[in-house]
Design goal:
The protein contains 1 helix and 7 strands. It starts with a strand and ends with a helix. It has a single domain (2-56, 63-89), classed as Transcriptional Co-activator pc4, Chain A, CATH 2.30.31. The strands form 2 sheets. The protein has a 5-stranded antiparallel sheet. A two-stranded antiparallel ribbon has the order 5-6. By secondary structure, it is α+β, with helices and mostly antiparallel strands.
Length: 93
Amino acid sequence: MKIEFTNRGFGRIEFTDRNGVECSLQESSLANEEAIWLGCNKANPQVLVPGQSWQPVEMPEGYVANTRMHLTRDMVRELLPHLQRFVDEGTIG
C-alpha cells in the first residue's frame, strides 16, 4: 500500500486487489459531510465469450464509468462489523 496526498491535500491510499486491479481509498472533498471514495481506479468492461473466456469490450468515445463507492462515515460504521467478522472468521454472515 502506498499512502499519499492529492494535489488538494486529501489523503489517498493506493493498493492492488487480489486480481491485480489498481484501487484506492481516498478522502472526499465534500464540504458539508465527511466521506471517502473506495474502489477500482479504472473500469475494465468485459464480456464472457463462449470458448474464449472474458474479452474486453470497446466503449464509445466519451464513455464514463463510476467504479468507486462514495461512503459517508455512517455507512462505513455500518460496514465495519461485517468487515471485522470477515477478518476474524472468514465470513460476513
